[in-house]
Q: What sequence folds into this?
């Protein structure tokens, strides 16, 4: 087995170099076929009926009207639609109508009659008191850490209480505040769904999924067949940010309907259903008191936070509070709330964005209290970085400060110049993430004519997966990227892990580099005989196999491959998540800075400039890598200023579940974004680390801090809508 | 309608004849803009029920499709013509993902009834592909203006329409002019670059 | 969508032949930007849809003998925006520009914009236009004026305030075959008091065919919208102002109309009185803004809109008088 490794920066010809996304043209011309675009002959279109009530008990569900509607072929009542079922959130699907057209299905849906017993709705998830009164709270856990230990005779709780009070008395600066972030939804532009067909006891499923290799088994389990009988395909997926790991019960229902009707079925969630069912991010509301020494280094932190992840409870994990910069003494407690809203799904860096937004804002308020420069306070607290990355953060802060011109543009909180009613401000935040490579296998075929083909059951969420795979193989074989054909998106290809947790680029780098090096070893053996040298001296460069010491001694790649024989050389190589590796790594930092303008009369906030400095070990393709960061920042801008799931407290209805009401950032809202890849040799040698999540963490806190710097007043709850800005100014 | 304030008699000065037909000296209305001049025959208005066959002109070709009055142009494109570039993202056109050109103007195919599109030139994103893709497509590729790609066809058509009208657009104009489309992955920064590259002829 | 009949008349007379007298039985289709979405959600379920986009007389922009401009109801908004002759009505153009979507501007029509259904999310979620939820629920975008009855929604038209400020009229045909009349835009909207009542005074067999803008005649005008972001979202508050100033900058006549704050566009004679007889300066504009919201009765979540409405009025006045607004 060869020693798996990456070529040095100098020796690399393809990796680390900009390359156009391989599927850019098909995506830009409509040729790329997404699940929603797969139309099978004679297919039915299925539309689901969701509960209009957030909390009720079903008395009866009458679908006879739907069945009689012209064009409707099949109606199925789901288990949740059965009599006496308790429905705990608005939108829960109760029945599915399959028809000749979507319009007919929708008309059928409108004829469904539901009778329920309405139950008490609780949906005011930010209101802890009300949640307690309604009996909707649970213990979310917590942790205490103090430098001084209690004595053997001390009551622990009493000791902690006294110790914390002592530390606060000792503190030179104390900040007390409330910081919050509302729930948001995934809002994938391609909704969750599938086009499925039963044929001869086998299921063909075109599924919009982040988990091509894992969903065949899920279908099989629920449909009582074997995974071999299921073929899941997903060539392209229209957005998935942690919410598309499963066929979901509506995908299973579609398969059942296909079996029952003998026809293919396409069932995609409707837009409002996508927002309601497709996944959301838990809310977080935090009260904190922190104490710092004369240098602004936080010495003690005492917080309680609450929030909801939906009707089953849950919330933001206490384990990331306070975020990254963890003082030596802290007490953190949390309360979970069961609200009549849909259950959350993993959302791009679960827990981190909320924790960052609820706690690094408090750190910035410490700077405001001290009249200090926020940059200096973050710098002073780097020694408390819980991931040991103080040096990386320090370097990234320096880079960021230069790019945003921090020194020249900084002013103390609320003390900047006004232009009419417009004030500006700077803010920053920093983050951390793992990004361990996922399990991945790659089948590689090297054809006797020199063609290279790879097969891997991974998927492309927009990360540029195909391009990364091709670059790795091209680098390995000394070929052009166009000389490699990458196949992904089928459960019949070798297993590759789900795309979640920023694990994909690492995973495919592992499997493809390994397969490439394994195959190359065999080709070197053949070429060595031909060239009459030892295989160990060979290298693959510029379309040739050559003696690394004597470049004249070489044969073309094609010639070398012709030595394989009649059948292609096939190699399957695996990587198991967690195995030691020199190719990939985990653990990144990242620093972001925002420059905003606020109109004090209207509360409207605009982004002037945003700087993101990100490390991710070895960068395979700077272009697609940067695109990920731009995207994460833009998503963060949306969450900082615009996005929120608004639940009507009275009815529990997710009242803005259409794109006309669920406000996202538009092209004109993003200001100037500068992305800097931080990749000194010390980072590069660590190997590849995924970066889908980390840059999505900081924007909320950075922007909130910038707004606070502009106004001299903290707007406590994110998103920072004009209403909230004006309410905060009125209160100040 | 008892609380209506309207008066039942026509007001003087704007008799229907003088106002509309523009005949006679007193009604010399000057046409500042005339959008169409469809021929009017003597038969009464046609009322269509149920599914019928209609002709649409899509990407330069006349095609026969079946449509009910409620069938949207988007459904015809996607389910009958296999033109799936325009995407169904929002019911009300607010995402811009179903943008197509109708008589050279960008509109949402999702809120256009197929029957209302008869007699018009419909162009979809697929017409910008082919062996020699449109400059906008090429710029989207070279500036990496897509991630998951689901919104991309709608954006490509929107950028094409915007640049047709504003071939010398500045960066500020690009940022002000392309807000009818939503991208969830956040490709906006690269779309700005792509649009400006087309302006500069890069 | 419920199945419906489709009619595409080619003359105004033909339109009247296919419009039903029964409320809700026919819907008029122009650009479709609002109606088609409402039909998909089954919030509007007509038996027949009447597409007026093939009626040539509704698609013209004409100058009338008295110098007024008549704009057909089926004229798309981009044509109005691009029409140099209409530069004298910046209040109208600013309102259209604010829509911030090429697609909506190219597809949406003037008549459709003025007659669009309220954006109220309780209505759009099937809870009805006069939903009680609006009284204490998520009412942050709801009315702060004219909201003491059951209607808490806001009129969504972005152009109507400008049309009212400019004293425009609507030409309406029907219900009788030869009937037509002119209705001042200021009298077109009404606040429904019970379910099923429309937000305007038209009867089912009536149709707005044209908007008639009187000559600008030396007036100056502007629309200012408080918009959160650059997208096509509806403004949080808006105001349109038209004024006649003399050579010394003294206001002789003024019309101040607020948008997005009440179930109808909201005329403010209080603000107008403060302006008349004085030159425009930021202080005067601020006072007029304050006067416009003095009677505001905000709901549980929208007190902030009182401030926004005040600022919108102030800034529209300043813009109309050629001053800087001092904000975004």
A:
């Amino acid at each position: 087995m060869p020693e798996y490794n990456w070529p040095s920066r100098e020796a690399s010809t393809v990796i680390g170099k900009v390359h156009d996304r391989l599927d850019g043209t098909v995506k830009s011309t409509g040729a790329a076929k997404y699940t929603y675009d797969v139309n099978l002959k004679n297919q039915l279109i299925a539309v689901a009926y969701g509960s209009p009530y957030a909390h009720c008990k079903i008395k009866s569900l009458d679908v006879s009207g739907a069945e009689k509607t012209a064009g409707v072929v099949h109606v199925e009542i789901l288990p949740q639609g059965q009599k006496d079922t308790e429905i705990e959130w608005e939108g829960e699907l109760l029945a599915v109508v399959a028809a000749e057209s979507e319009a007919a299905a929708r008309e059928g849906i409108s004829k469904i009659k539901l009778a329920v017993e309405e139950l008490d709705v609780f949906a005011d998830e930010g209101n802890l008191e009300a949640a307690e009164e309604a009996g909707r709270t649970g213990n979310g856990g917590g942790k205490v850490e103090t430098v001084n230990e209690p004595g053997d005779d001390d009551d622990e709780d009493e000791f902690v209480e006294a110790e914390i009070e002592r530390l606060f008395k000792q503190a030179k600066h104390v900040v007390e505040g409330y910081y919050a972030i509302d729930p948001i939804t995934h809002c994938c532009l391609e909704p969750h769904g599938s086009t499925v067909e039963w044929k001869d006891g086998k299921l063909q499923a075109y599924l919009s999924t982040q988990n091509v290799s894992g969903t065949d088994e899920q279908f099989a389990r629920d449909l009582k067949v074997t995974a071999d009988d299921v073929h899941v395909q997903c060539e392209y997926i229209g957005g998935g940010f942690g919410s598309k790991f499963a066929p979901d019960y509506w995908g299973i229902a579609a398969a059942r309907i296909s079996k029952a009707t003998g026809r293919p079925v396409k069932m995609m969630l409707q837009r409002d259903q996508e927002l309601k069912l497709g996944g959301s991010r838990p809310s977080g509301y935090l009260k904190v008191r922190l104490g710092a020494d004369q240098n602004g280094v936080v010495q003690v932190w005492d917080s309680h936070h609450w929030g909801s992840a939906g009707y089953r409870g849950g919330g933001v994990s206490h384990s990331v509070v306070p975020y990254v910069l963890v003082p030596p003494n802290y007490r953190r407690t949390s309360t979970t709330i069961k609200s009549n809203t849909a259950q959350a799904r993993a959302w791009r860096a679960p827990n981190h964005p909320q924790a960052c937004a609820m706690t690094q804002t408090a750190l910035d308020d410490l700077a405001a209290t001290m009249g200090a420069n926020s940059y200096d306070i973050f710098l002073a607290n780097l020694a408390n970085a819980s991931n040991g990355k103080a040096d990386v953060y320090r370097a990234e802060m320096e880079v960021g400060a230069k790019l945003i011109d921090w020194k020249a543009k900084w002013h103390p909180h609320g003390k900047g110049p006004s232009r009419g009613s417009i004030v500006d401000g700077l803010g920053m935040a920093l983050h951390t993430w793992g990004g361990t490579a996922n399990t991945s296998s790659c089948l590689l075929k090297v054809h006797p004519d020199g063609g290279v083909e790879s097969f891997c059951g991974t998927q492309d969420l927009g990360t540029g997966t195909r391009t990364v795979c091709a670059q790795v193989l091209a680098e390995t074989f000394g070929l052009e990227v166009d000389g490699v054909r990458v196949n992904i998106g089928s459960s019949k290809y070798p297993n590759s892990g789900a795309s979640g947790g920023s694990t994909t680029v690492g995973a495919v780098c592992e499997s493809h580099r390994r397969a490439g090096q394994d195959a190359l070893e065999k080709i070197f053996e053949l070429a060595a005989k031909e060239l009459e040298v030892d295989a160990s001296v060979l290298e693959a460069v510029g379309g040739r196999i050559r003696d690394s010491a004597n470049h004249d001694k070489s044969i073309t790649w094609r010639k070398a491959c012709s030595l394989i024989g009649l059948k292609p050389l096939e190699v399957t190589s695996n990587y198991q998540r967690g195995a030691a590796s020199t190719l990939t790594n985990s653990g990144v930092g990242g620093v972001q800075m925002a420059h905003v303008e606020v109109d004090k009369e209207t509360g409207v906030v605009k982004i002037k400039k945003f700087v993101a400095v990100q490390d991710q070990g070895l960068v395979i393709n700077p272009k697609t890598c940067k695109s990920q960061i731009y995207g994460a920042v833009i998503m963060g801008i949306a969450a900082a200023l615009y996005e929120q799931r608004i639940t009507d407290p009275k009815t529990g209805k997710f009242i803005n579940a259409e794109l006309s009401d669920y406000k996202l950032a538009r092209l004109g809202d993003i200001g100037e974004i500068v992305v800097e890849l931080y990749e000194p040799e010390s980072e590069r040698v660590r190997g590849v680390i995924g970066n889908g999540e980390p840059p999505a963490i900081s924007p909320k806190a950075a922007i909130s801090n910038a707004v606070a710097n502009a106004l001299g007043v903290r707007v406590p709850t994110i998103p920072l809508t004009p209403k909230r800005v004006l309410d905060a100014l009125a209160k100040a | 309608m008892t609380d209506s304030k309207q008066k039942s008699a026509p007001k003087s000065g704007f008799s229907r004849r003088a106002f509309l037909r523009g005949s006679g000296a007193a009604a010399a209305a000057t046409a500042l803009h005339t959008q169409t001049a469809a021929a009017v025959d003597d038969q009464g208005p046609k009322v269509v029920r149920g599914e019928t066959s209609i002709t649409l002109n899509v990407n330069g070709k006349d095609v026969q499709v079946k449509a009910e009055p409620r069938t949207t142009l988007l459904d015809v494109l996607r389910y009958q013509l296999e033109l799936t570039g325009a995407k169904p993202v929002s019911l009300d056109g607010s995402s811009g993902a179903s943008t197509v050109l109708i008589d050279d103007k960008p509109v949402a195919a999702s809120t256009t009834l197929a029957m209302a599109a008869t007699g018009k030139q419909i162009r979809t994103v697929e017409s910008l592909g082919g062996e020699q893709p449109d400059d906008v497509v090429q710029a989207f590729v070279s500036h990496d203006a897509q991630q998951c790609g689901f919104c991309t066809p709608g954006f490509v058509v929107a950028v094409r329409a915007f640049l047709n009208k504003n071939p010398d657009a500045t960066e500020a104009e690009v940022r002000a002019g392309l807000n009818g489309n939503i991208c969830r992955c956040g490709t906006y920064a690269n779309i700005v670059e792509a649009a400006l590259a087309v302006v500069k002829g890069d | 969508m419920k199945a419906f009949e489709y009619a595409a008349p080619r003359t105004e007379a033909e339109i009247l032949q296919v419009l039903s007298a029964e409320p809700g039985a026919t819907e008029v289709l122009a650009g479709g930007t609002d109606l088609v979405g409402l039909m998909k959600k089954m919030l509007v379920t007509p038996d027949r849809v009447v597409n007026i986009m093939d009626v040539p007389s509704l698609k013209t922009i004409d100058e009338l003998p008295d110098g007024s401009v008549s704009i057909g109801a089926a004229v798309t908004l981009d044509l109005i925006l691009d029409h140099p002759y209409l530069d004298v009505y910046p209040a109208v153009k600013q309102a259209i520009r604010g829509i911030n979507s090429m697609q909506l501007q190219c597809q949406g029509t003037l008549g459709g914009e003025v007659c669009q259904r309220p954006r109220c999310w309780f209505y759009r979620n099937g809870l009805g236009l006069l939903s009680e939820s609006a009284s204490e629920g998520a009412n942050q975008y709801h009315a702060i004026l004219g909201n003491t009855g059951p209607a808490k929604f806001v009129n969504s038209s972005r152009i109507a305030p400008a049309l009212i400020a400019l004293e425009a009229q609507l030409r309406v045909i029907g219900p009788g075959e030869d009937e037509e009349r002119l209705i001042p835009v200021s009298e077109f909207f009404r606040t429904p008091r019970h379910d099923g009542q429309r937000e305007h005074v038209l009867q089912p067999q009536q149709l707005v065919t044209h908007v008639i803008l009187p000559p600008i005649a030396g007036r100056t005008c502007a629309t200012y919208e408080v918009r959160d972001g650059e997208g096509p979202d509806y403004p949080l508050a808006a105001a349109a102002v038209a004024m006649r100033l003399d050579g010394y900058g003294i206001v002789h006549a003024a019309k101040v109309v607020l948008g997005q704050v009440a179930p109808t566009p909201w005329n403010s004679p209080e603000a107008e009185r403060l302006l008349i007889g004085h030159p425009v300066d930021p202080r005067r504009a601020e006072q007029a803004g304050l006067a416009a919201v003095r009677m505001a009765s905000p709901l549980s979540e929208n007190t902030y809109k009182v401030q926004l409405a005040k600022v919108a009025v102030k800034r529209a006045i300043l813009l109309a008088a050629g001053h800087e607004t001092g904000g975004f």
About this structure: Chain A has a mean pLDDT of 97. Chain A is about 30% helix and 25% strand.
